[in-house]
Design a protein that fits this description.
four-stranded mixed β-sheet, 3 helices, disordered N terminus
């Protein structure tokens, strides 16, 4: 069976007839605290859908379903499973980093990394009180859609420090 990466230009017909990526789900320990964190710190619009669940959205129709689980039953979200929040400029990444450090105690933020250039953008990571991982990154308008305009990459691709980043993310040293 051919795949998209095996034959450039040949589109594979998917087995499923899905039409839209609608949501992802995150666990939390305290639904009221986490909803406040999403609204007041992260800037999401939220709607309470059940006593133990709310929906959150920002800038589009995809949502995060946040569900309260057992207070002691959740482990740290692995680094690679993080949630990305885009800002417009590298200066905004730096400003966000300062705000995350400043408000870390109030919101229970931890494992705060320093901003660096990696995977084609300038970014940093932190974990929230619910041990969910977040990335604040600089991307052009449209987020990572620029990668689809480039097409399939070879070698290390966007993981290389020498990767040709979008022009709007070029003020920081590689």
């Amino acid at each position: 069976m051919a795949t998209v990466t095996e034959s450039v230009g040949e589109k594979v017909k998917p087995a499923l007839k899905t039409r839209f990526y609608s949501h992802a789900t995150l666990d939390c320990k305290d639904i009221a605290f986490t909803r406040k964190f999403f609204e007041e710190f992260l800037g999401f619009q939220t709607v309470q859908m059940a006593p133990v669940a709310f929906w959150a959205r920002m800038g589009g129709d995809q949502i995060i379903v946040v569900v309260q689980g057992p207070a002691n039953g959740k482990e740290n979200m692995p680094f690679l499973n993080h949630n990305g929040l885009d800002v417009a400029t590298e200066a905004e990444v730096d400003a966000s980093y300062e705000i995350v450090k400043r408000d870390a105690e109030k919101w229970g933020l931890h494992k705060i990394s320093k901003p660096v250039v990696q995977h084609g953008t300038y970014c940093f990571y932190f974990w929230d009180k619910d041990d969910n991982a977040w990335e604040i990154l600089c991307n052009p308008e449209g987020g990572y859609s620029w990668g689809f305009a480039l097409g399939d990459q070879t070698g290390a691709g966007h993981l290389s420090r020498k990767f040709q980043r979008p022009e709007s993310t070029l003020t920081k040293d590689k």
